[in-house]
Amino acid sequence: MFSSRCRCINCITPPHVLKKLLDNTDSRIRDAALRTLLSTSRLRGERKIRGLVAAAAAPSSHGRRTISDCGNSTMLGSATVARTEDGPKSKDDSVNRAFEGLGDTRDFYQQVFDRDSIDGNGMRLNGFVHYADGYNNAFWDGSEMVFGDGDGVLFTDFTKSIDVIGHELTHGVTEQAAGLIYHNQPGALNESMSDVFGSLVKQWVKKQSADQADWLIGAEVFTPEIGADALRSMKEPGKAYNNPTLGKDPQPDHMRKYVNLPDTDDGDNGGVHINSGIPNKAFYLTAIGIGGFAWEAPGHIWYASLLASNQNTNFQEFADTTYLKAGQLYGAQSAEQQAVATAWKEVGLQISGLHALAGTSSRMARARRVTASANGHDDAAEVAHKIAELSSQLTALSRTLEGMQQGRPH
Predict the structure, then answer these.
(1) Vertex 334, ends 332 and 233: CA angle to 5°?
(2) Are 83 and 73 contacting, i.e. CB atoms less than 8 angstroms apart?
(3) Phi, psi torsion values for 198, nearest 5 degrees
(4) How big is the CA angle at 227 (ends 224 and 229), to the nearest 5 degrees?
């Protein structure tokens, strides 16, 4: 079961940002970036072992939390327990923020999607704070959430951003729900799922509607001296930052700007942190198009589509699935389904078979109008028969489209 799952370290800070900092003239920034990259590289070798141990894990705990303090060490096994469900609040703000963030994310998935913790079976939530010295990242490694303190010059404590916590824990949800491989388009979808639900956790906690939210990921991780809005912007991919220290945000917001990178560590596994801007923008547009709280209809459409995905699902397949799920949840040609189709079109992806489905729906609507206006001389039985035929055609086309999504070669 677990052999097909991604065994990558899922970090919030993209590698292209850290590599840019290696050229910085400030030795503090340069050295912290190097330590972060080296530590992350070392962790990749340990990831598989810890992930397999987690797979054989303990029984359900309904998401009970434990936060441990690494004391700036990289040895998780030597960390000391700092707060548990049964213990008092800590005097350490990082411990308390991590504890509360894990709880908010757990409660979000439980209350919004009826999901019992990360794996759906009550997985225990373990968090580690004060990891390494000046570590400019936070990550999910398949069994636990780990936070760095930042270098204090560019980056600050990563526990300060609730959407970072939601982002990282969602990597665990994605791994369990669909196993999207961390390469190329499936990997970019993996990253996008984490941005989407990380942002929704923040919006849910703050009770913000789609038009009130900032749609920024990691807005709190930069120190005040840095001219950057956040690590990423779902509303405006490519515009989260633009300065000499960090460079320019490379995320595209449309398929015509898709960035083809090598499927290597240096190439960000095919640009998973970069091309995620495209599905991110599609979700933002869907949420704005539907209106209200984004964790409601838009969130449910995306969550149902994630559950229906597999490890190789690409952008087109996911777009098609969201359209189908919107129809199943809210009705064919509903405002929700139309918002989904419009959003994907705006980022350069046309829903497969959409015109055929729309044409059949139009013919059905015309037939219903005929029935409504029929007088005593009309053959109502014949009209009803035509409607039934058109309904059958629409159902067949929908099933064909769903079959194309499930059976398309990867």
Answers:
(1) 115
(2) no
(3) -65, -45
(4) 85
For every residue of 277-317, DSSP letters joined together read: HHHHHHHHHHHHHH-S-TTTHHHHHHHHHHHT--TT--HHH
CATH number, domain with residue 213: 3.10.170.10
- Please check whether residue 55 lies inside any domain of the structure: yes
Q: Average pLDDT, stretch 168-194?
A: 97
CA distance 329 to 350: 20
Show Cβ contacts of residue 90 under 8 Å, excluding neighbours closer than 6 positions. Answer: 67, 82, 83, 96, 99
Split into its structural domains, the chain has a count of 1
Specify the residue for token string 């789609």: 210
The residues near 8 (Cβ < 8 Å, ≥ 6 apart) are 44, 47, 182, 269
Q: Dig out the tokens for 53 from the structure.
A: 């141990």
Q: How far is CA 312 from the centre of its chain?
A: 16
Query: Does residue 343 belong to any structural domain of this protein?
Result: no
Mean pLDDT rounded to a whole number for the chain = 85
Q: If phi over 0 gives left and psi between -120 and 50 gives alpha, with beta otherwise, what is residue 139?
A: beta
Catalytic positions are 168, 273
- pTM of this structure: 0.84
Cβ atoms within 10 A of the Cβ of 95, count?
22
Strand order in the sheet with 125-131: 10-11, 138-140, 145-148, 125-131, 65-69, 80-84
Query: Which two structure tokens, joined as six digits, stand for 264?
Result: 């290597």
Q: Distance between CA 304 and CA 248 in Å, rounded?
A: 34
Helix or strand holding residue 218 (H, E): none
What count of other Cβ atoms lies within 10 Å of the Cβ of residue 398? 18
**Per the structure block, which two tokens stand in for 298?**
């838009």
- pLDDT for 203-246, tens place per residue? 999 999 999 999 999 999 997 778 788 999 999 999 999 999 99
- Please work out, in degrees rounded to the nearest 5, the angle formed at the alpha carbon of residue 88 by the alpha carbons of 84 and 90: 85
Residue 13 has what pLDDT? Answer: 86
Its domain, for residue 187, covers 2-278
Extract the tokens encoding 324.
């189908």
pLDDT in tens, 273-298: 999 999 999 999 999 999 999 999 99
Q: Is residue 153 part of a domain?
A: yes
The reply to whether 64 falls in a domain is yes
